[in-house]
Amino acid sequence: WLHPDLTGCGDNTESDSDDSSPAGENQVAGERKSRDRWQRKMVVPGCLCMASLRAFGVSAIEVVIAMLLEEVYAWDQRIIGLTIGAVFLCCIPLKILHSLLAHALSVVGWIRLLTGVALMGSCLLCKSLQMVLRVDGAEQLIVAAIVVFPTLYLSDALGSGIMHQHVLAEGSLFDGNHAQLWYNLMQGMGRFLGPWIARSTVQVHGQDAFAAQQLAVALAFLCIFETCARPYLRIKDETKQCDAGLRQVSL
């Protein structure tokens, strides 16, 4: 139950076509299959880029918050470790909430909503907001992490499920096995670059620049989903389902 429920997506894995049909039908089926393969080749790389951005953003905020709590707010390292661990555990209540309200939105709707919340959470990283919100800087950082961590993780998990729903036939560079390999590599690259670039940004340009960086990461995550993945999903009436879900939530 810890994993997102994608039963509504159906199994859209590419399969081999039947060659016993008449020539005319085979030609139409061939054109349809060619178009389908092209669409899948857009969805899978798009979801891989989303995974890399998620790993980059999460690892960056993890390292920067630990650094700021220790160097700026003089927190003990053990307390910092426990705090970051508790922040990670916030993924559990969000998953429970998603399980209870899963039918209120489509998969696309959930990714949009979660990424939008992550964008708002990234704004809390701005140091200049301390005077406006009148809160302690350390508390503001922790609240930002509580918002950004689970929302980015769950939205990427949903994107990963979509990716595996759209893998190509066995033998392709984007079949099930290769897609998981690229997914692990893209995640590793994001986790490698995230902490290094984030620390450099904070040390050279300050905390507000890091907040802008996190906003850019979350925005890029959403833009890649909207341009490279969502238009090519093999899920019928996905946009209508999303709009209906949004109306249901608003009521």
Question: Could you characterize the architecture of this molecule?
Answer:
- Helix 7 runs antiparallel to helix 8.
- It contains nine helices and no strands.
- It has one domain: Growth Hormone, Chain: A, CATH 1.20.1250.
- The C terminus is likely disordered.
- The chain is mainly alpha-helical.
Topology, element by element:
Elements: H1 23-71, H2 77-89, H3 91-100, H4 107-123, H5 129-133, H6 137-165, H7 176-205, H8 207-229, H9 238-250
Helix pairs in contact: 1-2, 1-6, 1-7, 1-8, 2-6, 3-6, 4-6, 4-8, 4-9, 7-8
Structural class computed from helices and strand pairing? mainly alpha
- Amount of helix: over 70%
The fraction of residues assigned to DSSP E strands is under 5%
Number of domains: 1
| Coarse shape | elongated
CATH homologous superfamily caption = MFS general substrate transporter like domains
End-to-end separation in angstroms reads: 28 Å
**Radius of gyration using CA atoms only:** 21 Å
Mean pLDDT: 83
Largest sheet: none
Q: Given this structure, which CATH class is correct?
A: Mainly Alpha
CATH topology group = Growth Hormone, Chain: A
SSE order:
HHHHHHHHH
If classified by CATH, what would the architecture be? Answer: Up-down Bundle
Number of helical regions: 9
Beta strands, count: 0
Low-pLDDT windows of residues: 236-251
